[in-house]
From TrEMBL, chain A:
InterPro entries in the cross-refs: POLR3C_WHD, RNA_pol_III_RPC82-rel_HTH, RNA_pol_III_Rpc82_C, RPC3, WH-like_DNA-bd_sf
Residues covered by region (Disordered): 166-189, 205-229
Gene Ontology cellular-component annotations: RNA polymerase III complex
Sequence ranges of Low complexity compositional bias: 171-181
Gene for this chain: POLR3C
Residues in RNA polymerase III Rpc82 C -terminal domain copies: 149-347
GO MF term set: single-stranded DNA binding
Cited Gene3D superfamilies: 6.10.140.1450, Winged helix-like DNA-binding domain superfamily/Winged helix DNA-binding domain
Subcellular location: Nucleus
Name of the featured protein: DNA-directed RNA polymerase III subunit RPC3
One Pfam assignment: RNA_pol_Rpc82
Subunit structure: Component of the RNA polymerase III (Pol III) complex consisting of 17 subunits.
Basic and acidic residues composition-biased segments: 216-229
From TrEMBL, chain B:
Protein name: DNA-directed RNA polymerase III subunit
GO CC terms: RNA polymerase III complex
Nucleus in keyword set: yes
Key words, A-Z: Nucleus
Length: 536, 225
């Protein structure tokens, strides 16, 4: 992992789990797998704090543990990797997707699981039912069965999966015992991974009443602590990020088709992807071939296009330079596939081109696109093909070169590498360039977070004051104060201070929003890079 | 001839050509100083994509961050013992300790060595813990308070339930721990202005003025009245 990745992970850990967990997590990222004593010694933190931090990290899947490398008897080793921590950036997107697919219930289930790392089905259902009840109209409550059924749907469609049983624990009959000292098995290698346990969950959500004193809170707390059993003890669930990523990938392809061509084309591609959901493995480069007949039958009823029109659309898709769809045969009216890898590669390429355009202008972008297509060109050829005068072309090329977006290759004509007898060819390599850009993205997000923390720190006193005043206002309102009292309190914040707070809010929102947007690029580039590695 | 390309310091590669060999014109003047921190951008960046989805994602993100802060997954460094023990410390300490206790993972899924035994300094100290003898705690332990009857009842109930979870070394320690949890839980809900527990003053009474004027460290010339 790179320095940028470690830096970003540190900031994410700090924001979500505090400085202590950050210290332990970052240490493990840099040092590799270590046992408890070494971690305590090298971080200088107290035993309890290190233990607690490791618990938090393990709970959230950021850290895994295994028996030591020296065989049985050697101390447990803890290993943290960047990938899982970087996923935190994408949490809003996972939650939002769950909402679009399974409504508010789905949204809250995913949110609960992301907040808690891993939990049982029964505790999730109860908590979500309570939360939904809280927002419902007076007197109405959410039934557990409704929440359970949404949970089951999420499991059936693989968005949720069971946490793999630990190595060495008695496995369910039929699963092989995991050998020691190998990489931890994937959740999917266990056959029960997507099996919903039969739970007895009868009840409705509880509305939490406004507390007059600590009593209510204590009784609610007591209710949580009392261990009703529901039949699923020891079965823990986690969010299956890979499944969400497949969904994002499909969505990206569909919307790219919609942008480039039209709505009907995107519906055809959406249909093809939907038909291929269960038959396509995650790392496949393309879907299994589908015949035009099958596609025609599977189109949504609202799309009433004629069969010959479908054929025309398919031809259009195949001919498009983005290569979203490919033709794989002639039977059944034509066999078609969605070119998953090619689509990702082309989307990544479009991203790189867009970056060059926005940073250096459209003419530099033209040069960049040219080099991507033609592979190797001499300076003179670049000038000619791009139709840019020599002096400007040279400047642009050197700027791109200095930013490492373009590389120079020497091809000697003679053994002595004499400059006058050597070809100097400009070239662009998509994969390494994408990797570099990805690192830039990590750095960007880290910078955005640091700036946001800085802005918050600068206005810390004002923020605290505003929070105190809001608390006072809230308590006054709850105890039924006069409007004059309320305005008196509100006026404790002066107008310029209000202005400052508004500006601060605006900045923080912008920075947060920018993080989300950069993560979209991160996702695309990561997908492309992973897909390329898998297919090579 | 200065190679302008190498001056940009991109990695350890030195280029085996110079500007002049590739093309006959003069190279751009070489840069002799680090690039400016905020260089003027030739191309202004595009604005952020707005829209309903972006707004919702933003709200989700900020809500999540807020929610994580209130969950017990953020152990904090204990407050270092100040040189002078203050009356306000008694009330300021409670919040930190709850978080440390509030969450217990399913120990079957965690290595045994990670189990934490947390001992808290006594607040209403009917019981003293001899393993916890730091100067702060000694002072705290001297202050005795009255326990509410209801807390006794609650404590007894929760004791039964929590017995499996904790290793039963020091039952008294556990009792006190749970009692403090309940207390601390109850306290958190109290508004600043209504702090029932043993004091007639609101929390800001206990502001010992250390935060005041902390920002103006630079202006040491001015006399401080």
């Amino acid at each position: 992992m790179t320095a940028q990745e470690v830096r970003l992970c540190g900031l994410l850990l700090q924001e979500h789990f505090g400085e202590v967990v950050e210290k332990v997590g970052t240490h493990l990222l840099k040092s590799g797998a270590q046992n408890l004593r070494t971690i305590i010694h090298e971080t200088g933190l107290s035993v309890d704090l290190v233990k607690k931090s490791l618990c938090v990290l393990v709970q959230h899947g950021a850290t895994t543990f295994s028996s030591g490398r020296k065989g049985l008897g050697s101390p447990t080793e803890y290993h943290t990797s960047c990938d899982r921590i970087l996923r935190i950036l994408r949490y809003p997107r996972y939650i939002y997707t769950a909402k679009t697919l399974y409504g508010d219930t789905g949204e809250l289930i995913i949110e609960e699981l992301l907040q808690r790392g891993h939990t049982t089905m029964s505790s999730t259902v109860k908590t979500v039912a309570d939360r939904l009840t809280q927002n419902m109209a007076e007197g109405r409550t959410m039934d557990y069965t409704e929440v359970s059924s949404t949970f089951s749907k999420l499991v059936e469609t693989h968005f949720l999966q069971r946490c793999p049983p630990l190595p060495g624990t008695p496995a369910t009959p039929g699963t092989p015992a995991a050998p020691v000292n190998t990489a931890p098995p994937t959740p999917e290698s266990f056959p029960e991974c997507y099996k919903v346990p039969s739970v007895t969950l009868i009840g409705r959500g509880k509305r939490q009443l406004a507390s007059e004193d600590g009593e209510e809170q204590r009784s609610a707390k007591r209710a949580k602590m009392d261990p009703e059993t529901h039949g699923d003890e020891g079965i823990y669930w986690q969010v299956n990020f890979e499944r969400f990523h497949l969904h994002f990938r499909d969505q990206t392809i569909i919307s790219a088709v919609a942008n480039k061509l039209d709505q009907t084309s995107s519906e055809i591609v959406r249909t093809m992807l939907r038909m291929s959901e269960v038959t396509t493995s995650p790392m496949a480069t393309c879907t299994k071939p589908l015949s035009a007949n099958e596609i025609f039958r599977s189109l949504p009823p609202s799309y009433n296009i004629l069969r010959p029109i479908l054929d025309q659309y398919l031809t259009l898709l195949v001919d498009d330079p983005m290569e979203f769809v490919g033709k794989a045969g002639e039977s059944g009216g034509g066999m078609f596939v969605v070119n998953l890898h090619r689509a990702l590669a082309n989307l990544a390429r479009a991203t790189l081109e867009s970056v060059v355009q926005e940073r250096f202008g459209s003419r530099s972008a033209r040069i960049f696109r040219l080099l991507l297509r033609k592979r190797h060109l001499e300076q003179k050829q670049v000038e000619d093909f791009a139709m840019i005068p020599a002096k400007e072309a040279k400047d642009m090329l050197y700027t791109l070169l200095s930013q490492n977006l373009v590389q120079l290759q020497e091809i000697p004509k003679t053994p002595d590498y004499a400059p006058s007898r050597t070809f100097y060819l400009y070239t662009v390599n998509q994969l390494p360039t994408a990797r570099m850009l990805l690192q830039n993205c990590y750095k960007t997000v880290a910078n955005l977070i640091e700036r946001r923390l800085f802005e918050t720190k600068e206005s810390k006193r004002l923020l605290e004051k505003s929070q105190r005043i809001e608390a006072i206002l809230a308590s006054l309102q709850a105890s039924g104060a006069e409007p004059e009292q309320l305005t008196e309190v509100e006026e404790m914040i002066t107008a310029p201070e209000k202005q400052q707070l508004d500006t601060l809010r605006l900045h923080i929102n912008k920075l947060d929003s920018a993080e989300n947007q950069v993560d979209e690029t991160i996702f695309l580039l990561e997908s492309y890079i992973n897909s390329t590695n898998a297919s090579s | 001839h200065p190679s302008a390309m190498a001056a940009h310091g991109r990695g350890q590669r030195t280029l085996s050509f110079t500007m002049e060999t590739v093309k006959g014109d003069a190279p751009p003047p070489s840069v002799q100083q680090p690039t400016p921190v905020f260089p003027v951008m030739e191309q202004k960046p595009l604005p952020l994509t707005g829209g309903e989805e972006a707004e919702y994602l933003l709200a989700l993100k900020q809500d999540f961050r807020g929610a994580m802060r209130s969950l017990p997954f953020s152990p904090v460094l204990p407050v270092s013992c100040p040189d002078v023990e203050r009356y306000s410390d008694k009330y300021n300490r409670s919040e930190q300790m709850d978080k440390l206790l509030d969450w217990a993972p399913d120990w079957k899924r965690f290595p045994r060595e990670l189990r934490v035994h947390v001992r808290k300094p006594a607040r209403d100290s009917q019981y003293t813990l001899y393993s916890d003898y730091t100067p702060c705690n000694q002072v705290m332990m001297k202050k005795k308070g009255v326990k509410d009857k209801e807390e006794v009842l609650l404590k007894l109930e929760s004791l039964e339930k929590k017995e499996e979870q904790e290793t039963s070394e020091d039952e008294e320690g556990e009792t006190k721990k749970k009692q403090e949890e309940e207390e601390a839980e109850g306290e958190e809900e109290y508004d600043e202005e209504e702090f029932e527990e043993e004091t007639d003053y609101i929390m800001s009474y206990f502001d010992n003025g250390e935060d005041f004027g902390g920002d103006s460290d630079d202006n040491m010339d001015e006399a401080i009245y």
